Protein backbone atom coordinates (compact mmCIF):
# COMPACT_ATOMS: atom_id res chain seq x y z
CA UNK A 1 0.00 0.00 0.00
CA UNK A 2 1.04 3.65 -0.42
CA UNK A 3 1.77 5.94 2.53
CA UNK A 4 2.41 9.68 2.49
CA UNK A 5 2.69 12.56 4.94
CA UNK A 6 -0.97 13.38 4.31
CA UNK A 7 -2.20 9.91 5.33
CA UNK A 8 -2.41 8.58 8.85
CA UNK A 9 -4.20 5.57 10.30
CA UNK A 10 -7.34 6.32 12.35
CA UNK A 11 -5.84 4.88 15.53
CA UNK A 12 -3.30 7.73 15.55
CA UNK A 13 -6.02 10.39 15.60
CA UNK A 14 -5.97 10.80 19.36
CA UNK A 15 -5.91 13.33 22.16
CA UNK A 16 -3.00 13.32 24.57
CA UNK A 17 -4.01 13.84 28.23
CA UNK A 18 -2.24 16.42 30.34
CA UNK A 19 -1.14 16.27 33.95
CA UNK A 20 -2.98 18.33 36.54
CA UNK A 21 -6.60 19.38 37.12
CA UNK A 22 -8.44 20.03 33.88
CA UNK A 23 -7.87 16.86 31.92
CA UNK A 24 -6.98 16.88 28.25
CA UNK A 25 -7.03 19.83 25.92
CA UNK A 26 -10.32 19.87 24.03
CA UNK A 27 -10.57 19.44 20.28
CA UNK A 28 -11.72 22.99 19.58
CA UNK A 29 -8.72 24.40 21.44
CA UNK A 30 -5.94 22.38 19.87
CA UNK A 31 -7.66 21.07 16.75
CA UNK A 32 -7.38 17.49 18.05
CA UNK A 33 -3.68 16.88 18.49
CA UNK A 34 -2.66 14.51 15.72
CA UNK A 35 0.52 12.52 15.73
CA UNK A 36 1.81 12.05 12.23
CA UNK A 37 4.26 9.30 13.00
CA UNK A 38 3.81 7.90 9.51
CA UNK A 39 5.56 11.02 8.20
CA UNK A 40 8.82 9.08 8.20
CA UNK A 41 7.42 6.68 5.61
CA UNK A 42 7.78 8.89 2.56
CA UNK A 43 8.45 6.23 -0.06
CA UNK A 44 5.96 3.79 -1.46
CA UNK A 45 6.11 0.43 0.31
CA UNK A 46 4.85 -2.42 -1.79
CA UNK A 47 5.35 -5.34 0.55
CA UNK A 48 3.55 -7.33 3.16
CA UNK A 49 6.25 -6.07 5.56
CA UNK A 50 4.80 -2.55 5.46
CA UNK A 51 2.76 -3.29 8.55
CA UNK A 52 5.84 -4.36 10.43
CA UNK A 53 7.61 -1.16 9.42
CA UNK A 54 4.68 0.87 10.75
CA UNK A 55 4.75 -0.98 14.06
CA UNK A 56 8.50 -0.53 14.32
CA UNK A 57 8.23 3.17 13.65
CA UNK A 58 5.48 3.62 16.22
CA UNK A 59 7.40 1.74 18.86
CA UNK A 60 10.43 4.02 18.55
CA UNK A 61 9.06 7.45 17.59
CA UNK A 62 5.68 7.81 19.28
CA UNK A 63 6.76 7.06 22.88
CA UNK A 64 9.41 9.78 22.72
CA UNK A 65 6.77 12.27 21.72
CA UNK A 66 4.41 11.14 24.44
CA UNK A 67 7.12 11.30 27.07
CA UNK A 68 8.01 14.80 25.95
CA UNK A 69 4.39 15.93 26.14
CA UNK A 70 3.78 14.22 29.47
CA UNK A 71 6.85 15.66 31.18
CA UNK A 72 5.01 18.31 33.19
CA UNK A 73 1.64 20.02 33.10
CA UNK A 74 3.09 23.52 33.38
CA UNK A 75 5.51 22.80 30.53
CA UNK A 76 2.63 21.70 28.31
CA UNK A 77 0.66 24.82 29.18
CA UNK A 78 3.56 27.06 28.29
CA UNK A 79 4.09 25.20 25.04
CA UNK A 80 0.38 25.45 24.23
CA UNK A 81 0.50 29.18 24.78
CA UNK A 82 3.38 29.38 22.33
CA UNK A 83 1.17 27.83 19.71
CA UNK A 84 -1.65 30.33 20.25
CA UNK A 85 -3.88 27.74 21.94
CA UNK A 86 -6.50 28.20 24.65
CA UNK A 87 -5.67 26.55 27.99
CA UNK A 88 -8.33 25.28 30.43
CA UNK A 89 -8.74 27.77 33.30
CA UNK A 90 -7.94 25.17 35.96
CA UNK A 91 -4.61 24.40 34.35
CA UNK A 92 -3.90 28.07 33.83
CA UNK A 93 -4.43 28.77 37.52
CA UNK A 94 -2.03 25.99 38.47
CA UNK A 95 0.78 27.08 36.17
CA UNK A 96 3.50 29.45 37.28
CA UNK A 97 4.02 30.43 33.65
CA UNK A 98 0.57 31.91 33.12
CA UNK A 99 -0.40 35.46 34.02
CA UNK A 100 -3.65 36.26 35.81
CA UNK A 101 -4.64 39.28 33.75
CA UNK A 102 -7.07 37.53 31.44
CA UNK A 103 -4.68 37.96 28.50
CA UNK A 104 -2.80 35.05 26.99
CA UNK A 105 0.72 34.81 28.35
CA UNK A 106 3.66 35.69 26.12
CA UNK A 107 6.22 33.13 25.08
CA UNK A 108 8.71 31.95 27.66
CA UNK A 109 12.01 32.07 25.81
CA UNK A 110 13.72 30.28 28.66
CA UNK A 111 12.51 27.02 27.11
CA UNK A 112 13.08 25.71 23.58
CA UNK A 113 11.43 27.85 20.93
CA UNK A 114 8.31 26.76 19.08
CA UNK A 115 10.12 25.85 15.91
CA UNK A 116 12.76 23.84 17.78
CA UNK A 117 10.21 21.28 18.94
CA UNK A 118 10.00 18.25 16.60
CA UNK A 119 6.24 17.93 17.06
CA UNK A 120 5.41 21.62 16.46
CA UNK A 121 3.01 21.05 13.58
CA UNK A 122 0.89 18.59 15.56
CA UNK A 123 -0.95 21.49 17.20
CA UNK A 124 -1.85 23.06 13.87
CA UNK A 125 -4.34 21.09 11.82
CA UNK A 126 -3.19 20.79 8.24
CA UNK A 127 -0.19 23.08 8.71
CA UNK A 128 3.47 22.56 8.00
CA UNK A 129 6.46 23.24 10.21
CA UNK A 130 7.31 26.94 10.16
CA UNK A 131 3.78 28.07 9.22
CA UNK A 132 2.01 30.49 11.56
CA UNK A 133 -1.74 30.06 11.58
CA UNK A 134 -2.47 32.80 14.09
CA UNK A 135 -4.70 32.91 17.13
CA UNK A 136 -7.77 34.18 15.36
CA UNK A 137 -7.76 31.68 12.54
CA UNK A 138 -7.43 34.27 9.77
CA UNK A 139 -6.17 33.66 6.28
CA UNK A 140 -2.60 34.79 6.84
CA UNK A 141 0.03 32.06 6.50
CA UNK A 142 3.64 33.16 6.90
CA UNK A 143 6.51 30.70 6.82
CA UNK A 144 9.24 31.75 9.25
CA UNK A 145 11.25 30.51 12.23
CA UNK A 146 10.17 33.25 14.67
CA UNK A 147 8.15 33.33 17.88
CA UNK A 148 5.72 35.86 16.41
CA UNK A 149 4.66 37.16 13.05
CA UNK A 150 4.51 40.65 14.56
CA UNK A 151 5.83 42.21 17.75
CA UNK A 152 4.46 45.69 18.45
CA UNK A 153 6.26 48.07 20.79
CA UNK A 154 3.68 50.43 22.27
CA UNK A 155 0.04 49.84 23.23
CA UNK A 156 -1.33 53.22 22.22
CA UNK A 157 -3.78 54.03 19.46
CA UNK A 158 -1.60 52.97 16.53
CA UNK A 159 -0.07 49.96 18.26
CA UNK A 160 -3.34 48.50 19.49
CA UNK A 161 -5.02 48.99 16.12
CA UNK A 162 -2.15 47.33 14.26
CA UNK A 163 -2.05 44.47 16.79
CA UNK A 164 -5.68 43.48 16.76
CA UNK A 165 -6.21 43.93 13.01
CA UNK A 166 -3.09 41.89 12.27
CA UNK A 167 -4.34 39.18 14.63
CA UNK A 168 -7.75 39.24 12.96
CA UNK A 169 -5.99 38.50 9.67
CA UNK A 170 -4.43 35.41 11.25
CA UNK A 171 -1.05 36.69 12.39
CA UNK A 172 0.43 35.70 15.74
CA UNK A 173 0.96 39.00 17.53
CA UNK A 174 2.43 40.35 20.75
CA UNK A 175 2.35 43.94 21.97
CA UNK A 176 4.53 45.45 24.69
CA UNK A 177 2.94 47.98 27.05
CA UNK A 178 5.53 50.02 28.96
CA UNK A 179 3.00 51.01 31.67
CA UNK A 180 4.01 54.70 31.54
CA UNK A 181 0.45 55.82 30.84
CA UNK A 182 -1.66 52.68 30.39
CA UNK A 183 -3.41 50.73 27.63
CA UNK A 184 -4.62 53.10 24.96
CA UNK A 185 -1.57 55.33 25.20
CA UNK A 186 -1.50 59.11 25.36
CA UNK A 187 -4.88 59.72 23.72
CA UNK A 188 -6.91 57.63 26.14
CA UNK A 189 -4.99 58.35 29.34
CA UNK A 190 -3.40 61.81 29.21
CA UNK A 191 -4.46 63.27 25.88
CA UNK A 192 -7.51 63.58 23.68
CA UNK A 193 -10.10 61.94 25.91
CA UNK A 194 -9.45 63.56 29.31
CA UNK A 195 -8.71 66.88 27.60
CA UNK A 196 -12.09 66.85 25.85
CA UNK A 197 -13.81 65.96 29.13
CA UNK A 198 -12.08 68.90 30.81
CA UNK A 199 -13.04 71.15 27.90
CA UNK A 200 -16.70 70.20 28.26
CA UNK A 201 -16.64 71.07 31.95
CA UNK A 202 -14.86 74.37 31.43
CA UNK A 203 -17.65 75.60 29.15
CA UNK A 204 -20.30 75.35 31.87
CA UNK A 205 -19.59 78.78 33.34
CA UNK A 206 -20.04 80.35 29.91
CA UNK A 207 -23.28 78.46 29.35
CA UNK A 208 -24.60 79.64 32.71
CA UNK A 209 -23.72 83.22 31.84
CA UNK A 210 -25.39 82.92 28.42
CA UNK A 211 -28.53 81.45 30.01
CA UNK A 212 -29.48 84.78 31.58
CA UNK A 213 -30.32 86.23 28.19
CA UNK A 214 -32.79 83.40 27.69
CA UNK A 215 -34.60 84.04 30.96
CA UNK A 216 -32.76 81.64 33.25
CA UNK A 217 -31.34 82.72 36.60
CA UNK A 218 -28.71 80.60 38.35
CA UNK A 219 -26.63 81.05 41.42
CA UNK A 220 -22.90 81.23 40.82
CA UNK A 221 -21.86 77.64 39.97
CA UNK A 222 -19.59 75.89 42.44
CA UNK A 223 -16.78 73.56 41.38
CA UNK A 224 -16.00 70.22 43.01
CA UNK A 225 -12.58 69.55 41.46
CA UNK A 226 -12.16 66.18 43.19
CA UNK A 227 -15.43 64.93 41.72
CA UNK A 228 -14.24 65.99 38.27
CA UNK A 229 -10.96 64.09 38.68
CA UNK A 230 -12.70 61.00 40.08
CA UNK A 231 -15.25 60.90 37.25
CA UNK A 232 -12.52 61.40 34.67
CA UNK A 233 -10.50 58.56 36.20
CA UNK A 234 -13.52 56.26 36.10
CA UNK A 235 -14.01 56.91 32.41
CA UNK A 236 -10.32 56.33 31.66
CA UNK A 237 -10.42 53.04 33.59
CA UNK A 238 -13.46 51.98 31.60
CA UNK A 239 -11.63 52.68 28.34
CA UNK A 240 -8.51 50.83 29.57
CA UNK A 241 -10.71 47.81 30.16
CA UNK A 242 -12.16 48.04 26.67
CA UNK A 243 -8.68 48.08 25.15
CA UNK A 244 -7.67 45.08 27.25
CA UNK A 245 -10.73 43.12 26.16
CA UNK A 246 -10.18 44.02 22.51
CA UNK A 247 -6.63 42.69 22.62
CA UNK A 248 -7.71 39.60 24.54
CA UNK A 249 -10.55 38.83 22.15
CA UNK A 250 -8.22 39.26 19.18
CA UNK A 251 -5.78 36.75 20.67
CA UNK A 252 -2.94 39.24 21.08
CA UNK A 253 -0.29 38.52 23.73
CA UNK A 254 0.32 41.55 25.97
CA UNK A 255 3.81 41.81 27.44
CA UNK A 256 4.15 44.21 30.36
CA UNK A 257 7.31 46.30 30.41
CA UNK A 258 9.58 48.57 28.40
CA UNK A 259 10.74 46.89 25.20
CA UNK A 260 14.06 47.41 23.43
CA UNK A 261 15.11 46.33 19.96
CA UNK A 262 18.12 44.00 19.95
CA UNK A 263 18.36 43.28 16.24
CA UNK A 264 16.22 43.27 13.11
CA UNK A 265 14.04 40.44 14.45
CA UNK A 266 14.54 40.44 18.24
CA UNK A 267 12.92 42.43 21.04
CA UNK A 268 13.80 42.29 24.73
CA UNK A 269 11.41 43.03 27.59
CA UNK A 270 13.08 42.75 30.96
CA UNK A 271 15.19 39.59 30.98
CA UNK A 272 13.21 37.88 28.22
CA UNK A 273 13.65 38.07 24.47
CA UNK A 274 11.13 37.54 21.68
CA UNK A 275 11.74 37.01 18.00
CA UNK A 276 9.41 38.27 15.29
CA UNK A 277 9.22 38.35 11.54
CA UNK A 278 8.29 42.04 11.74
CA UNK A 279 8.70 44.63 14.49
CA UNK A 280 6.38 47.64 14.65
CA UNK A 281 7.42 50.66 16.72
CA UNK A 282 4.41 52.65 17.98
CA UNK A 283 5.68 54.30 21.17
CA UNK A 284 4.13 57.72 20.61
CA UNK A 285 5.52 61.00 21.92
CA UNK A 286 6.50 62.60 25.21
CA UNK A 287 6.36 66.22 26.45
CA UNK A 288 9.45 68.39 25.96
CA UNK A 289 10.82 70.43 28.87
CA UNK A 290 12.99 73.56 28.47
CA UNK A 291 16.41 73.64 30.08
CA UNK A 292 15.88 76.46 32.57
CA UNK A 293 16.56 76.87 36.26
CA UNK A 294 13.70 75.45 38.33
CA UNK A 295 12.23 73.37 35.51
CA UNK A 296 11.48 70.62 38.03
CA UNK A 297 8.64 72.80 39.35
CA UNK A 298 6.78 72.68 36.04
CA UNK A 299 4.21 70.09 35.05
CA UNK A 300 3.24 68.83 31.61
CA UNK A 301 0.02 67.71 29.97
CA UNK A 302 0.66 64.29 31.55
CA UNK A 303 0.24 65.64 35.08
CA UNK A 304 -2.37 68.36 34.56
CA UNK A 305 -5.18 65.79 34.73
CA UNK A 306 -4.19 64.65 38.23
CA UNK A 307 -3.95 67.93 40.16
CA UNK A 308 -5.44 67.63 43.64
CA UNK A 309 -6.88 71.14 43.57
CA UNK A 310 -8.14 73.44 40.86
CA UNK A 311 -5.50 76.02 39.81
CA UNK A 312 -6.13 79.60 40.82
CA UNK A 313 -3.17 81.27 39.10
CA UNK A 314 -1.76 79.35 36.15
CA UNK A 315 1.18 80.15 33.90
CA UNK A 316 1.22 78.25 30.61
CA UNK A 317 4.32 78.16 28.42
CA UNK A 318 3.79 77.53 24.72
CA UNK A 319 1.80 78.62 21.68
CA UNK A 320 0.75 75.28 20.19
CA UNK A 321 -2.61 73.60 20.42
CA UNK A 322 -2.00 72.01 23.84
CA UNK A 323 -1.03 75.34 25.41
CA UNK A 324 -3.91 77.18 23.75
CA UNK A 325 -6.45 74.53 24.75
CA UNK A 326 -5.41 74.50 28.40
CA UNK A 327 -5.36 78.28 28.56
CA UNK A 328 -9.06 78.19 27.72
CA UNK A 329 -9.79 75.17 29.91
CA UNK A 330 -8.15 76.51 33.08
CA UNK A 331 -9.62 79.97 32.50
CA UNK A 332 -13.04 78.34 32.16
CA UNK A 333 -12.53 76.64 35.53
CA UNK A 334 -11.90 80.01 37.13
CA UNK A 335 -8.11 80.38 37.06
CA UNK A 336 -6.23 83.54 36.17
CA UNK A 337 -4.12 82.48 33.18
CA UNK A 338 -0.91 83.92 31.75
CA UNK A 339 0.01 82.40 28.38
CA UNK A 340 3.66 82.95 27.42
CA UNK A 341 4.36 82.86 23.67
CA UNK A 342 7.69 83.52 21.95
CA UNK A 343 6.16 85.18 18.89
CA UNK A 344 3.17 87.40 18.27
CA UNK A 345 1.00 84.62 16.87
CA UNK A 346 -0.24 81.27 18.13
CA UNK A 347 -0.78 77.90 16.47
CA UNK A 348 2.09 77.78 13.99
CA UNK A 349 1.13 75.64 11.00
CA UNK A 350 -2.54 76.61 11.17
CA UNK A 351 -4.10 79.33 9.03
CA UNK A 352 -2.64 82.65 10.21
CA UNK A 353 -5.95 84.53 10.04
CA UNK A 354 -7.63 81.91 12.20
CA UNK A 355 -4.78 81.81 14.72
CA UNK A 356 -4.80 85.58 15.13
CA UNK A 357 -8.59 85.66 15.36
CA UNK A 358 -8.55 83.04 18.12
CA UNK A 359 -5.74 84.82 19.96
CA UNK A 360 -7.72 88.07 20.01
CA UNK A 361 -10.86 86.24 21.16
CA UNK A 362 -8.94 84.67 24.05
CA UNK A 363 -7.59 88.05 25.10
CA UNK A 364 -11.11 89.47 25.03
CA UNK A 365 -12.28 86.64 27.28
CA UNK A 366 -9.63 87.48 29.87
CA UNK A 367 -6.62 85.25 29.10
CA UNK A 368 -3.44 87.30 29.53
CA UNK A 369 -1.32 86.48 26.47
CA UNK A 370 2.25 87.74 26.87
CA UNK A 371 3.78 88.01 23.39
CA UNK A 372 7.49 87.59 22.71
CA UNK A 373 7.98 86.35 26.24
CA UNK A 374 9.77 83.33 27.69
CA UNK A 375 10.22 81.92 31.16
CA UNK A 376 13.89 82.06 32.18
CA UNK A 377 13.73 80.91 35.81
CA UNK A 378 11.26 79.37 38.24
CA UNK A 379 11.56 79.90 41.96
CA UNK A 380 9.63 77.95 44.59
CA UNK A 381 8.39 79.82 47.65
CA UNK A 382 6.13 77.19 49.18
CA UNK A 383 3.68 74.41 48.42
CA UNK A 384 2.19 75.30 45.01
CA UNK A 385 3.58 78.81 45.37
CA UNK A 386 6.01 79.82 42.64
CA UNK A 387 7.60 82.87 41.07
CA UNK A 388 8.14 82.80 37.31
CA UNK A 389 10.91 85.09 36.05
CA UNK A 390 10.30 86.26 32.48
CA UNK A 391 12.61 87.33 29.66
CA UNK A 392 10.99 90.77 29.83
CA UNK A 393 12.21 91.24 33.40
CA UNK A 394 8.76 90.77 34.91
CA UNK A 395 8.08 88.29 37.70
CA UNK A 396 4.65 86.69 38.07
CA UNK A 397 3.13 84.41 40.70
CA UNK A 398 1.65 81.00 39.97
CA UNK A 399 0.34 77.93 41.75
CA UNK A 400 0.63 75.82 38.57
CA UNK A 401 3.16 76.16 35.75
CA UNK A 402 2.25 74.11 32.70
CA UNK A 403 4.94 73.53 30.10
CA UNK A 404 3.37 72.83 26.70
CA UNK A 405 6.11 73.70 24.21
CA UNK A 406 5.73 70.49 22.23
CA UNK A 407 6.20 66.74 22.20
CA UNK A 408 9.05 64.66 20.81
CA UNK A 409 8.94 61.01 19.71
CA UNK A 410 9.52 58.70 22.65
CA UNK A 411 12.29 56.70 21.00
CA UNK A 412 15.13 57.27 23.45
CA UNK A 413 16.47 54.03 24.90
CA UNK A 414 14.67 51.75 22.44
CA UNK A 415 17.91 50.63 20.81
CA UNK A 416 16.78 51.73 17.36
CA UNK A 417 19.95 53.60 16.42
CA UNK A 418 22.10 50.73 17.63
CA UNK A 419 20.49 48.36 15.12
CA UNK A 420 20.67 50.88 12.28
CA UNK A 421 17.22 52.51 12.26
CA UNK A 422 17.47 56.07 10.97
CA UNK A 423 16.12 58.76 13.32
CA UNK A 424 15.42 62.45 12.73
CA UNK A 425 17.00 65.16 14.88
CA UNK A 426 14.03 65.13 17.26
CA UNK A 427 14.20 61.35 17.61
CA UNK A 428 11.41 60.66 15.16
CA UNK A 429 11.67 57.41 13.23
CA UNK A 430 12.29 58.16 9.56
CA UNK A 431 9.87 56.06 7.54
CA UNK A 432 8.77 55.49 3.98
CA UNK A 433 5.16 56.03 3.01
CA UNK A 434 4.31 52.47 4.09
CA UNK A 435 5.95 52.94 7.51
CA UNK A 436 9.07 50.94 6.73
CA UNK A 437 12.28 52.15 8.36
CA UNK A 438 15.86 51.86 7.14
CA UNK A 439 15.77 48.27 8.45
CA UNK A 440 13.40 46.29 6.18
CA UNK A 441 11.81 44.21 8.97
CA UNK A 442 11.21 47.18 11.31
CA UNK A 443 8.28 49.56 10.82
CA UNK A 444 6.87 52.53 12.72
CA UNK A 445 3.52 54.33 12.93
CA UNK A 446 2.02 57.23 14.84
CA UNK A 447 3.59 60.04 16.85
CA UNK A 448 7.02 58.40 17.03
CA UNK A 449 7.53 58.99 13.31
CA UNK A 450 8.24 62.15 11.35
CA UNK A 451 4.65 62.34 10.02
CA UNK A 452 1.51 64.05 11.40
CA UNK A 453 1.12 63.66 15.15
CA UNK A 454 -2.61 63.01 15.39
CA UNK A 455 -4.46 60.05 16.89
CA UNK A 456 -6.60 59.37 13.78
CA UNK A 457 -3.40 59.33 11.70
CA UNK A 458 -1.85 56.72 14.02
CA UNK A 459 -5.02 54.62 13.79
CA UNK A 460 -5.05 54.82 10.00
CA UNK A 461 -1.35 53.96 9.72
CA UNK A 462 -1.70 51.01 12.07
CA UNK A 463 -4.69 49.66 10.17
CA UNK A 464 -2.96 50.06 6.80
CA UNK A 465 0.12 48.27 8.13
CA UNK A 466 -1.96 45.30 9.26
CA UNK A 467 -3.91 45.07 6.02
CA UNK A 468 -0.77 45.36 3.92
CA UNK A 469 1.32 42.72 5.66
CA UNK A 470 -1.28 40.26 6.91
CA UNK A 471 -4.54 41.00 5.10
CA UNK A 472 -3.41 40.74 1.48
CA UNK A 473 -4.56 44.34 0.91
CA UNK A 474 -1.54 46.61 0.34
CA UNK A 475 -2.40 50.24 1.08
CA UNK A 476 -1.03 53.35 2.77
CA UNK A 477 -2.66 56.10 4.80
CA UNK A 478 -3.57 59.15 2.73
CA UNK A 479 -2.32 62.08 4.80
CA UNK A 480 -3.49 64.77 2.41
CA UNK A 481 -6.37 66.96 3.64
CA UNK A 482 -6.44 65.56 7.18
CA UNK A 483 -9.00 67.44 9.26
CA UNK A 484 -8.22 68.51 12.80
CA UNK A 485 -9.51 70.76 15.56
CA UNK A 486 -8.23 72.80 18.46
CA UNK A 487 -10.61 72.53 21.44
CA UNK A 488 -9.95 76.08 22.50
CA UNK A 489 -12.45 78.71 23.59
CA UNK A 490 -13.85 79.19 20.96
CA UNK A 491 -12.99 76.09 18.89
CA UNK A 492 -10.83 76.15 15.79
CA UNK A 493 -11.49 73.61 13.04
CA UNK A 494 -9.55 73.11 9.83
CA UNK A 495 -9.21 70.84 6.81
CA UNK A 496 -6.99 71.25 3.78
CA UNK A 497 -4.35 73.91 3.26
CA UNK A 498 -3.88 77.19 5.14
CA UNK A 499 -3.90 80.26 2.91
CA UNK A 500 -0.12 80.73 2.62
CA UNK A 501 0.56 77.07 1.82
CA UNK A 502 -2.26 77.03 -0.72
CA UNK A 503 -0.68 80.03 -2.43
CA UNK A 504 2.71 78.30 -2.54
CA UNK A 505 1.22 75.12 -4.00
CA UNK A 506 -1.29 76.48 -6.50
CA UNK A 507 0.08 79.94 -7.37
CA UNK A 508 -3.29 81.67 -7.78
CA UNK A 509 -6.04 81.40 -5.18
CA UNK A 510 -9.39 82.93 -4.29
CA UNK A 511 -10.29 83.51 -0.65
CA UNK A 512 -13.82 83.71 0.76
CA UNK A 513 -14.22 85.01 4.33
CA UNK A 514 -17.18 85.62 6.60
CA UNK A 515 -17.09 87.00 10.13
CA UNK A 516 -20.35 87.16 12.06
CA UNK A 517 -22.12 87.00 15.39
CA UNK A 518 -23.93 83.66 15.87
CA UNK A 519 -27.70 83.86 16.32
CA UNK A 520 -27.44 82.50 19.87
CA UNK A 521 -25.40 85.44 21.05
CA UNK A 522 -27.81 88.04 19.72
CA UNK A 523 -29.90 87.04 22.75
CA UNK A 524 -27.28 85.75 25.20
CA UNK A 525 -25.47 89.08 25.09
CA UNK A 526 -22.07 87.46 24.55
CA UNK A 527 -19.58 89.27 22.32
CA UNK A 528 -18.27 86.00 20.87
CA UNK A 529 -18.08 85.97 17.09
CA UNK A 530 -17.19 83.40 14.44
CA UNK A 531 -14.84 83.39 11.45
CA UNK A 532 -15.22 81.16 8.40
CA UNK A 533 -12.82 80.92 5.50
CA UNK A 534 -12.76 79.04 2.18
CA UNK A 535 -9.67 78.82 -0.04
CA UNK A 536 -10.07 77.92 -3.72
CA UNK A 537 -7.56 77.06 -6.44
CA UNK A 538 -8.39 79.66 -9.10
CA UNK A 539 -7.33 77.48 -12.03
CA UNK A 540 -9.58 74.50 -11.20
CA UNK A 541 -12.22 76.00 -8.88
CA UNK A 542 -11.37 73.22 -6.44
CA UNK A 543 -11.85 73.95 -2.72
CA UNK A 544 -8.42 73.31 -1.18
CA UNK A 545 -8.96 74.61 2.36
CA UNK A 546 -11.75 75.33 4.84
CA UNK A 547 -11.17 76.91 8.24
CA UNK A 548 -13.33 78.11 11.11
CA UNK A 549 -13.09 79.73 14.51
CA UNK A 550 -16.29 79.42 16.49
CA UNK A 551 -18.54 77.12 18.48
CA UNK A 552 -18.50 73.46 17.37
CA UNK A 553 -15.91 74.13 14.65
CA UNK A 554 -14.48 70.64 15.03
CA UNK A 555 -17.86 68.98 14.57
CA UNK A 556 -18.53 71.00 11.41
CA UNK A 557 -15.15 70.30 9.85
CA UNK A 558 -15.62 66.53 10.02
CA UNK A 559 -18.43 66.74 7.47
CA UNK A 560 -16.73 69.23 5.18
CA UNK A 561 -13.55 67.12 5.31
CA UNK A 562 -15.33 64.43 3.30
CA UNK A 563 -16.27 67.00 0.66
CA UNK A 564 -12.71 68.26 0.33
CA UNK A 565 -11.40 64.70 0.24
CA UNK A 566 -13.66 64.10 -2.74
CA UNK A 567 -12.18 67.22 -4.40
CA UNK A 568 -15.34 69.31 -4.28
CA UNK A 569 -15.41 72.46 -6.41
CA UNK A 570 -16.63 75.84 -5.21
CA UNK A 571 -19.53 75.61 -7.68
CA UNK A 572 -20.56 72.27 -6.20
CA UNK A 573 -20.30 73.67 -2.67
CA UNK A 574 -22.48 76.61 -3.72
CA UNK A 575 -25.11 74.21 -5.06
CA UNK A 576 -25.68 72.71 -1.61
CA UNK A 577 -28.86 73.87 0.13
CA UNK A 578 -27.95 74.76 3.70
CA UNK A 579 -29.62 73.86 6.97
CA UNK A 580 -31.27 76.97 8.39
CA UNK A 581 -30.71 78.51 10.84
CA UNK A 582 -27.21 77.17 11.56
CA UNK A 583 -23.72 78.58 11.53
CA UNK A 584 -22.64 75.77 9.20
CA UNK A 585 -24.86 77.03 6.39
CA UNK A 586 -22.54 80.03 6.06
CA UNK A 587 -20.03 77.73 4.33
CA UNK A 588 -22.48 77.06 1.48
CA UNK A 589 -23.73 80.64 1.11
CA UNK A 590 -20.45 82.55 0.70
CA UNK A 591 -20.71 83.73 -2.91
CA UNK A 592 -18.51 86.84 -3.06
CA UNK A 593 -14.73 86.55 -3.29
CA UNK A 594 -13.10 88.44 -0.44
CA UNK A 595 -9.77 88.73 -2.28
CA UNK A 596 -7.47 86.95 -4.70
CA UNK A 597 -3.75 86.29 -4.42
CA UNK A 598 -1.10 85.54 -7.02
CA UNK A 599 2.24 84.11 -5.98
CA UNK A 600 3.94 85.46 -9.09
CA UNK A 601 2.74 89.00 -8.42
CA UNK A 602 3.67 88.89 -4.74
CA UNK A 603 7.13 87.50 -5.51
CA UNK A 604 7.75 90.25 -8.06
CA UNK A 605 6.71 92.93 -5.57
CA UNK A 606 9.17 91.57 -3.03
CA UNK A 607 11.96 91.75 -5.61
CA UNK A 608 11.27 95.38 -6.59
CA UNK A 609 12.66 96.98 -3.38
CA UNK A 610 15.79 94.85 -3.69
CA UNK A 611 16.31 95.99 -7.30
CA UNK A 612 15.75 99.63 -6.33
CA UNK A 613 18.37 99.32 -3.59
UniProtKB/TrEMBL annotation:
Chain ranges passing through the membrane: 41-61
Similarity comment text for this entry: Belongs to the class-I pyridine nucleotide-disulfide oxidoreductase family.
One Pfam family per UniProt: Pyr_redox_dim
Cofactor(s) this protein requires: FAD
Region (Disordered): 593-613
Gene Ontology cellular component list: cytosol; mitochondrion
A biological process from GO: cellular response to oxidative stress
InterPro entries: FAD/NAD-bd_sf, FAD/NAD-binding_dom, FAD/NAD-linked_Rdtase_dimer_sf, GSHR/TRXR-like, Pyr_nucl-diS_OxRdtase_dimer, Pyr_OxRdtase_I_AS
Stretches with biased composition (Basic and acidic residues): 594-613
Protein's recorded name: Glutathione-disulfide reductase
Subunit structure of this chain's protein: Homodimer.
All residue ranges annotated as the Pyridine nucleotide-disulphide oxidoreductase dimerisation domain in the record: 482-590
Domain FAD/NAD(P)-binding: 148-462
MF annotations from Gene Ontology: flavin adenine dinucleotide binding; glutathione-disulfide reductase (NADPH) activity
Sorted UniProt keywords: Disulfide bond, FAD, Flavoprotein, Membrane, NADP, Oxidoreductase, Redox-active center, Transmembrane, Transmembrane helix
